[in-house]
Amino acid sequence: MTDMDAAQTRESLLALLKDNGIDAVTYEHPKVLTVEEGAKHVGHLEGGHSKNLLLKDKKNRLILVSALTSTKVDMKVLSQRLGLGKSGLRMAPEDIMQAVLKVPLGCVTPFALLNQSARSVILFLDEGFKSKAQVFFHPLTNDATTAISPSGLEKFLGLIGREPVYINVEEVVVVGKEQPPDLAGYLVDATGDNKEQPATKTPPVQGNKPGLSQGATTPANITGATAKLKSKSAPAQKTCADVQGTTLTILNELLSTIQKEVTSQNQGQEIAAVLSKPLRQHLEPELESLLMAFKNTAYTEGFVAGMASRSASK
Questions:
Q1: Which stretches of the chain are DSSP H helices?
Q2: Does the pTM of the predicted model rise above 0.90?
Q3: Locate the YbaK/aminoacyl-tRNA synthetase-associated domain: which residues (predicted)?
Q4: Which of 10, 156, 274, 297 has the fewest Cβ atoms within 10 Å of its own Cβ atom?
Q5: Domains (ranges, CATH) in the chain?
Q6: pLDDT band at 250, cuts 50/70/90?
Q7: Are strands 144-148 and 24-28 parallel, antiparallel or unpaired?
Q8: Quick one: CA torsion of 92, 97, 103, 104, rounded to 10 degrees?
Q9: Count of other CB atoms within 10 angstroms of residue 238
Q10: Using CA atoms, how far apart are residues 180 and 188, in angstroms rounded to an integer?
Q11: How far lies 290's CA from each of 178, 184, 230, 271, in Å?
């Protein structure tokens, strides 16, 4: 196609599979919006029938989880395994799904990663797919279902420059000092260069300075207040493992400095107090999420370095 940003179609997808020797059989049926509706038409076919969830975190990074219909997908558990805490994931809204995957509601599928706009989406495949002779996905439309072998799916992913990542979706990982979040590395490594979703870009951890969310309403003097905060002596040492405590310490220092700045400009103590509340409500979850990601990344890198050191010493 000449326009790389144009949505791929069912026809272009099936042609790509055929041209590259990937066997696939497509079954026509009425439009369906749910797994249950689809089962009425193709549920009798042997193989791994799928459910596909497009999730997003607080930084708008997108994760596509493709699992067997019988697999339980616990978003809280998955969020913790990604190093995002218990509530770091939610379903991506329909407008993002359509802008990035370029498919309508009810058509979420790994095949949608063929679109250039979806190149920053992280894909997790249920390891249960590997034991099936064939697996089923919508071919970019929900009025048909395409059967493809796991090896054929892997070949398709290779054609679009992706390595298949299989995970045990139902595994419960108790994250802590001895056990870093096992999937966090995939978020750190995400390139996120999607033009339609600039917010999905994952900045490097080293050298990245915490800041306000783009578009947040802030007082004009916040830059000066932050500069004054940096020049102050550091607060009493606090372990960064205590994310909530560290968040409150930093937030209290920042808001105290802003409040003093506003008051010093004769804008009144009442205005400063009123200003402090919405800033706290906006900044606290953002800052806590940032610190949690930083802590989990440090755990992961330390764990990997330790394993590498042990291997080298053997």
A1: 10-19, 35-42, 75-81, 94-100, 150-159, 184-189, 222-231, 243-264, 269-313
A2: no
A3: 29-156
A4: 274
A5: 10-189 (3.90.960.10), 218-313 (no CATH)
A6: confident
A7: antiparallel
A8: 60
A9: 12
A10: 14
A11: 21, 13, 18, 28
